[in-house]
Each structure stands twice: as C-alpha cells, then as structure tokens.
Amino acid sequence: MRKLRTLLVTFVLMYICLLPVGAAEGDFVVSLEIGNPIMRVNGIETEIDPNRGTKPIVVDGRTLVPIRAIIEGLGGRVLWIEETETVVLILNDEQIQLNIDEKTALVNGKEKSLDVEPRVINERTMIPVRFVAEGLGLGVAWDDDSQTVFVVKNSFEHEEYERLMKAVPEYFGVARVEINGNKPFFEDYEIIGASFEYYGQLDGIGRCDVGFASVGKDIMPTTPRGSISSVTPTGWQSVVYRGVIDGDYLYNRCHLIAHQLTGENANKRNLITGTRYLNIEGMLPFENKVFDYIEKTGNHVMFRSTPVFSEGNLVADGVLLEGYSVEDKGEGICFCVYCYNVQPGVRVDYSTGDSTFVGTSFDVYRTPSGKRYHSNPDCGGRNSYGTSIEDAQNAGLTPCQKCVK
Ligand SMILES: [Zn+2]
Q: Which of 319, 312, 306 is nearest to 275 (CA)?
C-alpha cells in the first residue's frame, strides 16, 4: 500500500512540476489567533475559511491551522489526493507531503516526523503550523500573550534595487551611509514582538536574498560559533592583500544576520561574499549595538539585512541594514543604513569577485585593536592597515600624538 501511495504521489508531483508555479513574490505576514476564524494577511483581516468559521486550535501544545488559507495567502498551492488522504503543499521550490493521521511527512523528499499528526476536523485539514512553516523555509513566531502565530516571508524585488540605489551616494570613504532619514522600511504589520528568523531563497544563480528576524533572547545562541567554511557564497575567492587589509584576507563569509543574534552557522541563505571592510567597519557596529540592547532589555529587535546585487553580479554592491526595537517603538534601536561592500586600496569586480590592488592612498593607518590612528603606517606596528579618517573617527579612534600633526 505504501509503495503504491508513493508511486501515485510521485506521478502526481511529476505532473505538477511541469506546471508554472503561481506568483509567489513579495512580502507576507500571515497571523492567526487561536480560536479566531479571522486571520490577517499583511494587516488586512480576512476569514480563514469563508462562511465555515474554521479556527486554529491547540493540540498537545502544537498549533493546528487549516493550512490551505495560509499557503494560498503566501502565493503557494495546496493539493489534496483523495485516494491516499495526502496533502501536498508547494511554495516556490519547497514541497511538503503529509498524510492524515500519520506522524511522518516528506519535506523536500526527506522523511521528517511530526509531534502531532495532521487530522481532518469538520472536513477541513488541520496541520501543525510550525512544522509546515519551517519545512517551507518560512519564518514562524508564536506570541504567547495574544495566542497568535505569525508566518513570515520576505524578499527583495529587483525593482526595489533601482529605487534604493538612487538614494545611495557613490562610495566616498565612509563605510556606511544613512538611508531614508535613518528610518527602516518595515511595515506596521511586519513588526512582531515574538522571535522568528527567516532567510530568503537563493535565486537562480545562487545569490542570497534577505535575512529577516525579530531577534529576542530566546533565539540567541548559547553555544560558540561553528565552522562556516563549507559554504561557498557567490563570487567567493580566497585572496590575500598583506599589509593592506586587517587580517590580510579581502573577503569574509559575511553573515547577513550575525551569529551572535540568531546563532546561524553554515546556512547558505545567510552568508555572502563580503569584504573585510564591509564586515568589520560597516556591519559589525550595528550587530553589536543590537546584541547589547537585547542583552540589557530582553526586548525584541526587528532586524533585516538585504544584500544588494546589481543585475547578474556575483558579489553584492552593499548591504542594507535595518533595525527597530519593538517594545519601546524604536526608542532603543532605530536605524536604516547602507554598508558599502568595498575595500579601501582594492578594486573589486562585482560581476566575478576578481580584484586588483589599486594602491595605498589612505588618509591614515590603524590596527584592529589600537585606540589611535597614525599618519605613518610603521608607527602603529605590524598589523597596521589603511583607512579613511572618517572611518577611524567613527570607530572612536583618536590621533596619535607622535605621528599625526
Ligand atoms: Zn603614530
């Protein structure tokens, strides 16, 4: 019987794969409250199951929802195979197959077990929402106070690229610039006071999309950072410019959402080819600020990190970083900055990741840990590297008494 079932499902899926998958672009937040037949899709109230009053329920500590509304709300598709009582959920490249009253499901072809089996109640298929959301690569948050589950999908559309880059000046010697008056672009319905993390799907040439999270203490890592060297982001090259760059290496595997915030290691949806300068001078100060704030307050911070690629390029031009503290409505954390994926002294070919040394025309020199900047690279010592005076001052360094006039 099982073999027949698998065969049948495989046949149906083969057929389905030939059909164009429906438009699934864009940003969605779907929220459902236990016992409430009304859900919200991007802030707009709508009946979960028109005229039938179907409500999300809790079974053994798991939230079960009528799944069709959510998946279709997110632009995906739901198929019901009557003979085998199989539900197939399709969203972009992800696929989940569940059977009624069975605790084993197929997530992208791999067997996974569920704590609570899918069931039919009042002729509606009720499925554990977290299992499905995570299997489909979606973000999922549970707010205990309001008994509400949030399902999140986010992406950066190419049309947004043109608009954003109009607001970004050419690199002029500072690691980052404020965009949109330093106000993040979050919609009201995207601001969620319960932790989740979401990493967008890689595009057709393997490039990362957004990293998006409501960072809370409960998802911060409790173990040290693991190895990330198994991931090869687009444009990656291992290349050294000794004496020019802090740490010598031009590129780092740069987390969209830092390990210290969500604990992600070798997640290929969260690592891009970033210059040392982008990593350390551009992004790190903001990641540290968010980390310190959450440690101190226990509040949540909405955090979105968007790598911005020009058409066809393998290396991002830069990263748009947005942050907003939820509970105090942005009083503690509120920023919207563009960090340049550049390296002073080196020219990067963004289409390939190739690079060339273009000479040291640095304003000043510093070391990774020193408190002063220098005019004379030898004065700072062995680990000196060049930087702009603005970056040195932004990093809180003061002029060396000996060599800076
Ligand atoms: Zn000096």
A: 319
> For residue 374, how far is its CA from the centre of ligand 1 (angstroms)?
4
Q: Which residues surround ligand 1, an ion (CB under 5 A)?
A: 374, 379, 400, 402-403
Q: How far is the CA of 378 from the centre of ligand 1 (A)?
A: 8
CATH code, residues 156-357: 3.40.570.10
Task: Give the distance (Å) from ligand 1 centre to CA of residue 347.
Answer: 27
Three-state secondary-structure class, residue 46? strand
Q: Specify the CATH architecture of the domain 2-151.
A: 2-Layer Sandwich (3.30)
The domain locations on the chain are 2-151, 156-357, 364-399
CA of 68 to the centre of ligand 1 (A): 66
Whether the domain at 2-151 and the domain at 156-357 fall into the same CATH topology: no
- Closest to 68 measured CA to CA, from 60, 59, 52: 52
Q: Give the number of other CB atoms < 10 A from CB of residue 289.
A: 15
Q: What is the pLDDT of residues 218-275, one digit of tens each?
A: 999 999 999 999 999 999 999 998 877 888 899 999 999 999 999 999 999 999 999 9
pLDDT of residue 15: 41
Residue 393, C-beta contacts closer than 8 angstroms, at least 6 positions apart: none
Residue located via tokens 């969620």: 192
pLDDT class of 360 with cuts at 50, 70, 90: low
Instruction: Mark 1-14 as b/e (b = at least 16 C-beta within 10 Å).
Output: eeeebeeebeebbe
- Residue 276 near residue 250, CB atoms below 8 Å: yes
CA of 397 from ligand 1 middle (Å) equals 12
Ligand 1 centroid to 405 CA: how many Å? 10
- Collapsing DSSP to helix, strand or coil, 281 comes out as helix
Q: Tell me the CA–centroid distance for residue 246 and ligand 1, in Å.
A: 17
Q: How confident is the model at residue 49 (pLDDT cuts 50, 70, 90)?
A: confident
CA 364 to ligand 1 center in whole angstroms:
9
